[in-house]
């Protein structure tokens, strides 16, 4: 999870010089990031991410950690990969 508002000093300068469009693409809340998504690739096991997936599950969900929990991992379209 990357929050551009929390980047400081050299990290902020690097990101802003290499990825100036990043702020436009990233969302602060998982639910906002999932809004209208057909596919989600999820590596975070943060409770807010799991709750957002359950509230508005995308058509395809690729779990990268293997630790999203039974409720999320049993959603239609879920596939665990990379673990």
Walk me through the structure.
Helices cover 39% and strands 13% of the residues. It is of the alpha/beta class and 83 residues long. The protein has one domain. The chain is elongated. The two termini are 19 Å apart. The mean pLDDT is 91.
Salient structural properties:
5 helices; single chain; 3 strands
What is the structure about, briefly put?
The chain has 83 residues and is an alpha/beta fold. Helices cover 39% and strands 13% of the residues. Strands 1-2-3 form a three-stranded parallel sheet, with no helix packed on it.
Count of the separate structural domains: 1
In this structure, how is the largest beta sheet organized? 3 strands, parallel
Low-confidence stretches: none
The global form is elongated
Radius of gyration: 14 Å
User: Looking across the biggest beta sheet, what order are the strands in?
Assistant: 1-2-3
E-strand count = 3
Coarse structural class: alpha/beta
Proportion of residues in extended strands: 5-15%
Number of helices: 5
How far do the termini sit from each other?
19 Å
Integer average pLDDT: 91
Secondary-structure element series: HHHEHEHE
- What percent of the residues sit in helical stretches (DSSP H or I)? 25-40%
By oligomeric state, this entry counts as single chain
């Amino acid at each position: 999870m990357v929050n551009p508002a929390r980047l400081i000093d050299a990290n902020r300068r690097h990101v802003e010089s290499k990825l100036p469009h990043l702020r436009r693409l990233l969302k602060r809340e998982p639910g906002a990031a999932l809004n209208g998504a057909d596919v989600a690739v999820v590596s975070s096991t943060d409770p807010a991410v799991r709750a957002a997936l359950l509230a508005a599950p995308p058509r395809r969900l690729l779990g990268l950690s293997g630790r999203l929990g039974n409720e999320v991992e049993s959603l239609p379209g879920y596939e665990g990969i990379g673990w």
